[in-house]
Fold each of these.
Amino acid sequence: MEIEHFFICPYCWQEISVVLDLTIDEQSYVEDCEVCCRPITLRYTAEDDELIEFDAMAIDE
């Protein structure tokens, strides 16, 4: 099951969204902000097709 999840970019503070695949229990990857184009580490945990935890972190440059 996929869901659209909204969060705040840790750089530009704009609300952006990503599509998360909740059939994967844990995932971590880097995606660029669609507003400021800076890289964000996204990490989430899902259980029984529900989002349990989500983090969007700036990458130290």
Amino acid sequence: MKKNMSTNAAVEKLRTNIKTSLIVLAALLCIAGAVFSADAINGGEGQTPLQESPTIQMSKEQADVSKIALIAAAIAFAAGALAAGFAISHVGAAAMGAVAEKPEIGGQALIFIALAEGLVVFGFITALMILGKM
């Protein structure tokens, strides 16, 4: 009974630590975004402000194609990253369970995790190819 109580307390402490970490990370990202966006609006050190920079003339069709290309590149990268995260979470858990029972298959487990990580690389390359066509 005591072991179960200590396990529940440890799980609750872990959940609290994870929640706190996520809140701190979100706050830091908001602060960094505000700082960098304010720097871009006002112009960085040694740079001219955005209002004084030369503009590129595009037709409406070119602007529409550029918007769609940027969205497609973002979707390609995001899909690859999300798929890799999903795959690594499942493959990694299964691999670590197998390694716990049979330690000599650790190398094979790492290969399976690396294969799942390849999804991010494919998404990144696809996004670069889309952006290269712009």
